[in-house]
From TrEMBL:
Coiled-coil stretches: none
Highest taxon in the source lineage: Bacteria
Ranges for domain Plasmid pRiA4b Orf3-like: 7-190
Pfam families attached to this UniProt entry: PRiA4_ORF3 (PF07929)
Protein name per UniProt: Plasmid pRiA4b Orf3-like domain-containing protein
Amino acid sequence: MTSRDLLTLRIELMESQPLIWRRIQIPADLDLAAAGDIIQIAMGWDNSHLQSFHSADPTQGWGKPQTGTSWYDQLALDEELEGQPQEGTTLGQALAVNPGTLFYVYDFGDNWMHRLTLESATPCPGGQCAARVLEGELRAPVEDSGGLSGWYDKLEEFNAEQPSEEQQETIDWLRWRSGDELDFDPMTYNQQAANRELELYFSLVAGDSVFGQWLRAKPSGVRRYALILASEAGITDDTPGARIPEWFFTEMVRPFQVLIELAQGEGIKLTPASWMNPKAVAELVDRLQWEGIDYESSSRKREHTMHTVAQLREVARMAGLVRVYRGRVLATKKGSELAGDEQRLARHLLNAINTAEKDEGLRDGTIAYWLCRAAGIEALSDAASDYITEVMNSLGYRMGPLGQPLGRHAVVHRSTVALLFEELARWHRRDSGGYFSKPAQEHVDEFARMVLQAPVS
């Protein structure tokens, strides 16, 4: 077995009768955190509890010092459980400790024990490895069933011919908790659905997009949840190139070109308060036909009263297109090179939109915002607030001294870039009253998908 092999593993839920099992193919070079994601998807778990890998059977050591090596996810390590981090060991390396056998434990309360057996190792076809389920039988138990004994007790109640009131409550709970309120069938395993999710996992988490890079830095439970949101929002592994629509160049790229042009040579002189001088701002507004933007209608244009102009300069600085030097805004070498090539400038902006923001909270809030917009949820609506705060809560953000989950009216900050591009879409697609029109909504939705799918260079 080499690090670039594709492994065939048999996964068995230990002591299940009849046996709940899967046969999967999985790359040997995945770290154990990613391998845990694959097992979760293949089995059909929710990835909502702690999990661990062990080289020795953990059921053989109850009440005794553990033998072998254990690898825990970060949340478990934070609980001061003794073991190694999963991110530092590949699946192939872990399978070599106790040759060909590995144990996986999910939910330390219900203790779902899995035995992983290596059946074969072959070179990845074409050098490209991805996981998939080859076959399997029976759905995984419903989460929080109380372990195997609790699961089988609940199945007995589920199969009652004339259920009592108490049994009917159990039946209703199983259907609700499983998410299959109409089609819950404990004897059926949906292999096709598992493989669809695995395909999405490898196209996004293993890809080079902005969204994929962001996902890889998040805990496995968050990754699974975010993948579901991405699927619903139509996020794929496609990356924008020739597909960049014409409106993006005229409405989003052109303002940066004009700013860079004004910052060439001696640049744009700043006022004593470090704002761009009114003459330069007026020329920028005139060349972009921005008269009336930010509700500024006076002849003397001031950057400090025009937030879109101020945001444009800040985003250009963050993207490395302009800089401030000795009281002037100057075009950088990179900015000067890109200003004359709108295709390269467009790709640079798409890449910089997320990578330029260093604050993790702002990055997370911005990704949550892009996901919400990509899903087509109306801006500034209660539905949008609920969506964004739910994503932030899943990432572990809390508010107040008691650490309460974020509510609908919590303020979730997003980057200056997101604010700027939403304002530009609003400006170019405003209705007669100056409000965010339906075409503007659709433009921002399309732009959000472009941002999330943009390649990270």
